[in-house]
Amino acid sequence: MHIHQHNLPLPGQEDEKYIQPMADTFKVLSDPTRIRILALLAHQEMCVTCIAEALEMTHSAISHQLRILRSTNLVKFTKDGKEVIYSLDDSHVLSLFDQALDHVKHKMG
Prior knowledge:
Layout: H1 19-29, H2 32-43, E1 46-47, H3 48-55, H4 59-71, E2 75-80, E3 83-88, H5 91-108
Antiparallel strand pairs: 1-3, 2-3
């Protein structure tokens, strides 16, 4: 049996406290619309209106999805006057995204 090097928390250990937040992150990432939003934000920062237009969805629907993404620290926002600009929270979000895409391409390829 080959053991891979990884940092996954072990049940019953001190770092088990990270398991539920990890599960919450994967739950949020399980929605296709949220993946599309993250894909857009991986390329550039955007306002809600631009995201809504790009995905052909309502402003309200995009705002709802962004609230969920913010709640798990996957996206952040800054204000530019009255405009709110969204971006990926940090490079870890892009790494998660890239790893998932690599896995899917490997299995489908």
